[in-house]
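The data layer described in this paper is built around a simple, fixed record for each protein. We quote a single record here, exactly as it is kept in our systems:
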Amino acid sequence: MDKKVIFAGLLACTSIATQAQDAKTAEPKGKAIVQVFGNFHSGFGAQGDDRGFELERSYLGYEYNLAGGLSVKGVMDIGKSNNVDDYHRIAYIKNAMVSWKKGGLTLNGGLISTTQFNFQEKFWGYRYVMKSFQDQYKFGSSADLGLSVAYRFADWVSADAIVVNGEGYKKVQKSDGLNYGLGVTLTPVKGFQVRLYGGINENDDPAKKDVVNVAAFAGYKHERFTLGAEYNHMLNASGKADADQYGYSVFGSVKLGKITDLYARFDDIYSRNQWNVAKDEQAAILGAQVKLGKYVKVAPNVRVEIPKAEGTKANCSAYINCYFGL
C-alpha cells in the first residue's frame, strides 16, 4: 500500500478521534444533589430532658448542564414541621430553576435561591451546623419564585438584582406585592470581601407596612483561617409599623490540619423598644469539624443561648452534627 495513503489514513483517524473527543467534552453533564443534615444533642441543667437523635433536613435533587451556558436544577427539601406536635417529615420543592451564564452575566429564573443572605451563608460555611444569622432569625427566605440577575464588572466588583414573590418557597403566592433586592459585592484585595444588600417586600394590605431589609457584611478568607462579621436590620417585621429588629453576627474558623477545623460564632438579636423581647437573645457556639473522607463531615460543638427577657435563664447544650453530601 502506498505510504502516502497510509499517512493520509492516519491523519484522518487522528482528526476523527479529536473531533469525537471534543464532542464528548461538549456533551451535557449532570450531577445528583444529595445532602443530609443530622445531629445528636443533649441539654444541660434545666434542659437536660432535651436530648436525642434528629434528622434535621435532607436535600435531594439533580442539576443538569446544557450547552451554551444553560443549566437546570431541581431540588426537594425534606424537613420537619414548625408544629411541635407534628413529627412527620414535610417535603417542599426548594429549587426548580433555569440558569444561563455568559461571560460575567448570570440569569436565574423559576424557584430560585434568593440573594439576601446566600453570600453570608457560603462564607460562614457550616450551614449543616447552624443557619446563617438572617436565616436563623427569620429575616427572609432562602428561596422564592422569581428572577435574578448578576453581573461581574471586574474581578473586584459585582452587582445583583432580584425580584420574587416574597412568600418564600414553602407558601403559595397569596399577596399581590413583590420582593425586590439589590446587592453589591466588593473584593478590594485578595481574600477580603464586602457585601451590601437592600431589599423591600411590598405589602398589599393598606393596614400594614412594607418590610425593609438592609445588611452589611465583611469577611476575610485565608488558606489557614476565616473571619466574618455582618450587621442586619429589618424594618416593619411582619408588616407591623415600627416593629424593627436588629442584629449582628461575628464568626471565624481555623484549620488545624488537613481534615480538622475549629470554628466559633456569636450572635446578638434585639428588637426596637423590646417589642419582641421574648425572642431576643445572645447566642454563641464553639466547635470543631472533622472530614471523614470526601462526603462525610462530623462537627461536635457546644452552644449557649442567653434570652433577654426578664426571669429567663441561659440554655446550654452539646451537639454532634453530621453531614453527608455528594
The two ends are 54 Å apart (CA to CA). The domain at 27-325 is CATH 2.40.160.10 (Porin). The chain has three helices and 16 strands.
